[in-house]
Amino acid sequence: MRDAVIAAAVRTPIGKGKPTGALHEVHSVDLLAHSLREVVRQTGIDPALIDDVIGGVVTQVGEQSNNVTRRATLAAGYPESVPATTVDRQCGSSQQAISFAAQGVIAGAYDVVVAAGLESMSRVPMGTNLIGTSDPVGADLAGRYPEGLVPQGISAELIAARWGISRTRMDEFALASHEKAAAATKAGLFERQLIPVHGLSTDEGIRTGSTVEQLAGLRSAYYSAEYATRFPEIGWNITAANASQINDGSAAVLITTSAKARELGLTPLARIHTTTVVGDDPLLMLTAIIPATRKVLQRAGLQLSDIDLFEVNEAFSSVVLAWAADTGADLSKVNVHGGAIALGHPLGASGARLATTLVHAMHDTGARYGLQTMCEAGGLANATVYERL
User: Fold this and answer.
1) What CA–CA distance (Å, rounded) separates 245 from 221?
2) Residue 1 above 90 pLDDT?
3) How many structural domains comprise the chain?
4) Catalytic residue among 34, 178, 345, 360
5) 273 belongs to the catalytic site
6) Is residue 375 annotated as a catalytic residue, yes or no?
7) Thiolase C-terminal domain: which residues (predicted)?
């Protein structure tokens, strides 16, 4: 029976997603090409063997539109015969790319495929794909949810209120993310996965030295009188400190079968054991990681206690803390090298970034099983179980 294994996993350092960020001058096509080029260099394979490149991008407009993955594939120097496509599962876009790649390999449609992700939020700001769209919802969806859906920040506030997560707890979690990321950087734990680009060799958003008392002085990032009236239970405790950053970055993983890896002389990092994707309440929007975790474990035939490491995207502290409370996961096994609050969240790249960080951490710690999950706009979530080889 065919399987799917990750033979290489790389990422760029993550830059601040603003005009002063270190990667702002790097064109989106070039930013993705950088990871695509490196994943081939590390494996030493002939890129003509690649059957497809699947890239995840969220804001597909401007230089990130028009199947940007194809242009990045050519920019990376791949033969013109190598095809490419771009997918959008919102924040889970490149995790979905990994799932599609694994499914294609297991089914026999591919022997070698690259799954990747990109987002340059400083050059293509979030939401610019909706400019000029007066009604992105439509009458039928509006009719199904007559009270209206809400932005993600409001969903994060609703989650904090429903699960009783305090401002202090969220800020403590955020500080811990920065401390873990700083420690991992200092120990050189990211060096095997990072590809320096445009003078940036480490993740730009990691901060240390703050305290809970200092963070307590930050104001709410999403307060709205309209939503305060509609949702009086909200405590307005989501701030810039306990939410993910806006960032630039890319990542790529090379996926093949165990048999093909042996033929090519490659040593796989991990097997893609089980994948799934689920939908959940689009009002809370960010809670689908809870049923996704349960579903992927059931499909894998594993228990929560079998998982040695978790990567759960830190879109907001409240999301990860609610997930841990509901699933019973041990937070000491979650995002052990920091998460998106510290490292950053370049939307379409984050799924491949989490996968890259996880499979390398599994080797560093001797973990057998790792589980990755991330919330996505619209009430969606991907979940993937990896097995170290």
Assistant:
1) 12
2) no
3) 1
4) 345
5) no
6) yes
7) 266-387
pLDDT given for residue 138 in this prediction:
96
pLDDT in tens, 31-89: 999 999 999 999 999 999 999 999 999 999 999 999 999 999 999 999 999 999 999 99
* pLDDT per residue as tens digits for the range 241-259: 999 999 999 999 999 999 9
b/e burial code for range 333-353 (CB count within 10 A of at least 16 → b) = bbbbbbbbbbbbbbbbbbbbb
Measured distance CA(312)–CA(341) in Å, rounded: 11
Q: Residue 120: name the closest of 35, 209, 3 by CA.
A: 35
Average pLDDT value for the chain? 98
Residue 261 lies in a domain: yes
Domain that residue 54 falls in: 4-124+245-270
34, 178, 337, 375: which one is catalytic?
375
CA distance 63 to 68: 7
Cα separation of the two ends of the chain: 17
**Annotated catalytic residue, options 91, 178, 273, 360:** 91
Bridge partners, 299 (sequence order): none
The predicted pLDDT at position 226 comes to 96
Task: Assign residue 254 the CATH number of its domain.
Answer: 3.40.47.10
Has residue 294 been placed in a domain?
Answer: no
Q: Is 228 part of a structural domain of the chain?
A: no
In a domain, 81, yes or no: yes
Verify whether residue 34 is a known catalytic residue.
Answer: no
Parallel/antiparallel/unpaired status of strands 270-279 and 5-11 = antiparallel
CA separation (Å) from 22 to 69, 123, 170, 189, 252?
A: 22, 12, 28, 21, 20
